[in-house]
């Protein structure tokens, strides 16, 4: 089998077509990569906003739980004082 090393016009045109297609593909994909990177930056920003909002809501829920505990403790104290007041009135003979 003999390999022909001669270069003719069709070889040059084929080579230019392949190189031109390769450069066109690279240019097209670079544009897409820029769009993907921009989209990813926007997604990162939105994710950061969601994380911030979740942190705020977590803090709010913790505060609400603390207030609920305070209200429960206050209710227990009022109930206990009410019972003590009732007992004192019974001992002293006052009517409720």
How would you summarize this macromolecular structure in one to three sentences?
The chain is mainly alpha-helical and 96 residues long. The protein is 88% helix and 0% strand.
Characteristics of this structure?
88% helix; 96 residues; 1 helix; mainly alpha; single chain
Please, how many helices?
1
Q: Summarize the amount of helix as a percent range.
A: over 70%
Structural class by sheet pairing and helices: mainly alpha
Low-confidence stretches: none
Count of distinct strands: 0
Q: So what's the overall shape?
A: rod-shaped
Mean pLDDT: 89
Distance between the termini: 121 Å
Q: Major sheet, described briefly?
A: none
Determine the strand fraction and express it as a percent band.
Answer: under 5%
Strand/helix succession: H
Q: What is the rounded Rg?
A: 40 Å
Structure description:
By secondary structure, the protein is mainly alpha-helical. The chain contains 1 helix and no strands. The chain has one helix at 9-92. The mean pLDDT is 89.
Provide the fold topology:
Layout: H1 9-92
């Amino acid at each position: 089998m003999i390999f022909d090393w001669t270069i003719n016009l069709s070889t040059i045109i084929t080579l230019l077509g392949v190189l031109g297609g390769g450069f066109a593909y690279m240019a097209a994909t670079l544009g897409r990569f820029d769009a993907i990177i921009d989209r990813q930056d926007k997604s990162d920003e939105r994710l950061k906003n969601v994380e911030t909002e979740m942190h705020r809501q977590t803090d709010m829920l913790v505060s609400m739980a603390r207030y609920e505990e305070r209200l429960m403790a206050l209710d227990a104290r009022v109930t206990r004082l009410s019972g003590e007041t009732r007992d004192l009135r019974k001992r002293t003979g006052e009517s409720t």
